[in-house]
Amino acid sequence: MPPAPVVPSFAWAKALASPATEFAATSLQGLAGEIPAGLQGTLYRNGPARLQRGGITVGHWFDGDGAILRVQFAEGQAVANYRYVQSAGFRDEEAADQYLYRGYGSFAPGSLWQRWQSQVKNVANTSVLALPDRLLALWEAGLPHGLDLETLETRGLDTLGSLRPSDAFSAHPKRHPRTGEIFNVGVIAGGKPVLQIYRCDPNGQVKATQRIDLNGIPLIHDFALADRYLVFCVSPVRLNPLPAVFSLQTFSDALQWQPKWGTQIIVVEAESLEVLAWEQAEPWYQWHFGHSVLHGDDTIGLDLVRYADFATNQQLKEVAAGQIHTPAEAQLWHYRIDPHSGNILEQHCAVDRHCEFPVTHIPAEGPALTYLSAHRTLPTPTGDFFDAVAQFNPQTQEVTLADPGPGYYPSEAIPVPDRHNPGQHWVITVVYNSHDHRSEVWIYDGNAFGADPVARLLLPAVIPHSFHGTWHSGLDAWGS
Length: 480
Description:
- This protein is mainly beta.
- The protein has one domain (11-472): Methylamine Dehydrogenase, Chain H (7 Propeller), CATH 2.130.10.
- Helix content is 7%, strand content 42%.
- The strands form 9 sheets. Strands 2, 30, 31, 32, 33 and 34 form a 6-stranded antiparallel sheet that branches. It has a 5-stranded antiparallel sheet with strand order 1-7-6-3-35, with no helix packed on it.
């Protein structure tokens, strides 16, 4: 039987209990404080906004239809708009008012034969990439959707000049800080599984590709860029293909934790896209990487959020149902890697508390700071959602918590530079206020993190918990 509608038993789940409501460009009402004068640019966020249709809830949080929030800051004011990505699958299901497609962890209602015949829907719900002339809504297993940067009108699937319909352009592209080149990947599962790597120009046009043969069909969500090198940590999750192909299991349920594979560390040269090293380490799972850097001794430093196994997938499945029962904790780990052998030279746990969604701020001077979604209390509350933001300073090893108070649930925090003061940065998060069932934009001072937000703004409608966002300053040649 398909999952029943969400019945919230936790405060955070109320944000997911109903499909999100779009809204046109609206000036945001201030609730407290003032928007900093130097905060100028645009925040974009993407996430699953519709998890129910026709009385049925999707089987996994990853299967909600994507919607984009845009918040533009200028002259101490903020204007926001919010729209669903008009994918072909979304339009078809809107017209039919029922699920017609299969997803990562969901089947549409119907017989086994109907399941087998149904196509996979590109839900365009995971992340965003701002280019000079368009916004890309990204999803793990297909092409991006192109959108208008201001109106968020969907233009359709975007081939980046040369991608094929069967290609995948994943959700965590990396932009080189010096050249503006964009690197990304996609796992191509048809026939011999391969990891397809892309090098794009600053405008998003694909300039070079490389294919690397894989052992089985893994789940590769993110990677690291450290100047001249790309690093992939291929965790020991493999798809059992036949049950998935014949619709006996969802893709999510057919993914198996196989620790015998260990975690494979693959190092690729960024310029040539050639493999330099392939080494096996102990098994772990990660969704996301944090800060990465090339040291002067030609070793790579990188951070990632490390899980002991793949229980995180079951936990994220339970988010869609509004009740989390499966424990799955992760910590921020730091690694130093030899790019020529793939050997781990050093490793240690940097932040020993459950965290996720690492985003790095690199200041003009001083250490890179990592912002993380975290919990305001320890130990981690059973069944609760992230309800605080943490700042990690690797130089001092200090973790500073911004605690909004019980019942407030911040999204992934995005650090952004001040337009006028290179030594100042701000941290923006979209917060679900469960007390008043509303969403707000909170702005923190990154230089005085842990204090109350400098401004709180009211959004016109509830924004369901989202995945990833980006900041678009509109100043440089490549629009980041």
